[in-house]
Structures are given as structure tokens and as C-alpha cells.
Amino acid sequence: MNTDTIKIGILGIGGIGGFVGAPLAKKYKDSSTKIIFICRGETKNAIQKDGLIFESKGIKETLFPDLVSDNPTEIGILDVLIITSKSYSVNEILNSYKDCISPDTIIITLQNVVNAREIIRETLPELGQIMEGCIYVASNVKKPGHVQHIGGPGKIFVGGEKENKWLIDLLTTGGLDITYVSDINQILWKKYLFVAPVAAITSAYKVTFGQLLEDKNLMHILENMMIEIQSLASKNNINLTKEDIETSKDLLTKFPFESKSSLQLDFENNNQTEKTFLVDYVIENCKKHEILTPFYESINERIISQN
Predict the structure, then answer these.
(1) How far, in whole angstroms, is CA 303 from its chain's centroid?
(2) Beta-strand (E) ranges in 59-145?
(3) Contact at 8 Å (CB) between 147 and 153?
(4) Each residue of 141-169: pLDDT tens digit?
(5) Which residue, 97, 157, 170, is CA-closest to 127?
(6) pTM for the whole thing?
């Protein structure tokens, strides 16, 4: 690692990328830590011209990172790459930017999946040191280059073979609430226990988090979907408890009534969706382990017929 400058690339400046990138760009302006926003199209043009507009807790700020680019040559080799894009674009994006990744580049993943390492290794069998992670936040794009933090604490958990304490310290100083944990898989599965079924059921029934909470029948279905994930987790040597399921259900109360899952928003806006990772993954992997998934399957059928 070059000790003079540290180059941190944030890949995808959407809701999560904006939330992660904004404090870092603000803190490390004109320092030896270079913050690079890697984005394309309208988002790139908007941020290059007017900066990233970021709203959180009633405060609106405009931030300019050291570089906004989609050109691997201009970006150069990164010390750290934080991937905040949707799961379905990870492989394509890593292909585009593999020239920016050395064997020493630390890759932090913040996707809503439990198999990020596998996904990355399909494209980069050798390059990069992977730190799988997850973030608890609701943050949306109002328009390209304009991100609004809506709710959730913004807590980030990461894990990997190496602790990379210097990096955790650097990101913490940069304003991120980030914690290294030795057993990241347990946390990834706990988050997935919430994210996957909630995304699926809100998309199938076109309800907000608040409407879901008020509907006893839907909450019953949701709990049973969580039990199906609990069974799959146990086949991956992860023990999700009854308390974990209660905690996941309770998490719905921490968001505004009108909150929608990102899967649901993608269906509404006719965007590409993460259904493969949040719905199909559960059904296919349960089949491999001969776990029955009647609740997940009925939700899946409803999603297909609705959308």
C-alpha cells in the first residue's frame, strides 16, 4: 500500500453510495486520502457539474469528491473499493473496473446477500482482499446526484480474513459507523432474515412497511418466510433463533410508515430488480437441501403474476 496517498473508490453513487460517500468526501477533502466516486451517465454528469447533494436529518449539503469518473485509466489502482451497487450489477461492474483492483485492494461489499464472496470470485478469482459487509439504512435517490437518507442508523458491519484496523479507523474518522466483526456470516444472515422476506412480501402485496405491520395475515406469512430462511441458514451452519425472527419483525417499526423496500420500488419503476438474490436464491437453495418453502413459493408466484 502506498503510504503517501490512500485511494478509496465508492462504486455506484445511489442511495447507499451517496450515504457512504458524502461524509468521506466532506472529511477527506484536500487530504492525502482521495475519495473517488465511480459512477456513469446522468449521475456522473450531475455530480461533476453540481456536486453530490446529500440530505440527512434535515440538513442538505453539497459535496465534491476528489474525482468523479467511470474511466478505469483515470481512476487508477485503488487501495480500497466499496461496492454499493445493486447485486445484479456486481459482476459486470467488476469486469469494467478490474484494472483498478490489485491483489492488495480491499473490496468491501454492502449488498443484501449472503454470498457476496462467491459473486465476486466468479469475476475476480485472484484479485482483491474481500471484506463482506452490510449496512442498516434507508437511503434513496431523489434524482441522479441527489441522495436522501430517510431512516435507519447507517450502521455498517464488515468481516474478512484480515481486520485491516487502519482502514476501519480511517472510515470511522471519515464519519462512518463501521465495525469489524470476526463472524460476519452470522450478521449477514441476520440482515438477510429481515431484508429478503420483507422485500418479497411488500413487492407481492404492494404494501408499505406500515401497512404490512397492520395486517395480521401478512405478518403471519412474513414470519413463516423467515422460518424458511432460518432452516436454510442452519444448513449453512448459521443458527438463527426465534428471538432473531422477533427482532427482524420488530425492525419494521423502526422505519417510517410509508417506507417501501428497494425491490418494491424497482418493480414500481420498471427497473432491473434483485429478485434473483432475495427470492429465487432462497427457493433454489432450499430445494438443494430438500427444505420445503410453501410460503416463499406462493409469494414468488404472486410477484410474477403482479409484475
Answers:
(1) 22
(2) 59-63, 67-69, 80-83, 106-109, 129-143
(3) no
(4) 999 999 999 887 899 999 998 999 999 99
(5) 97
(6) 0.92
The residue length of the chain stands at 307
Segments in the chain below pLDDT 50: 1-2
DSSP label at 49? H
> For 23, phi and psi rounded to 5 degrees?
-65, -35
Nearest CA to 49 out of 143, 145, 141, 148 is that of 145
* C-alpha cell at position 175: 464519519
Which amino acid appears at position 130 of this protein?
I
Per residue, the 3-state secondary structure of 172-230, as one string, reads HHCCCEEEECCCHHHHHHHHHHHHHHHHHHHHHHCCCHHHHHHCHHHHHHHHHHHHHHH
Under DSSP, the state recorded for 1 is -
> Phi, psi at residue 156, to the nearest 5°?
-120, 135
Cα dihedral value 138, 23, 123, 113, nearest 10: -20
Q: Residue 147 corresponds to which cell in the numbers above?
A: 441522495
Closest listed residue to residue 227, CA positions, set 297, 298, 293, 301: 293
Grid cell digits, residue 59: 440538513
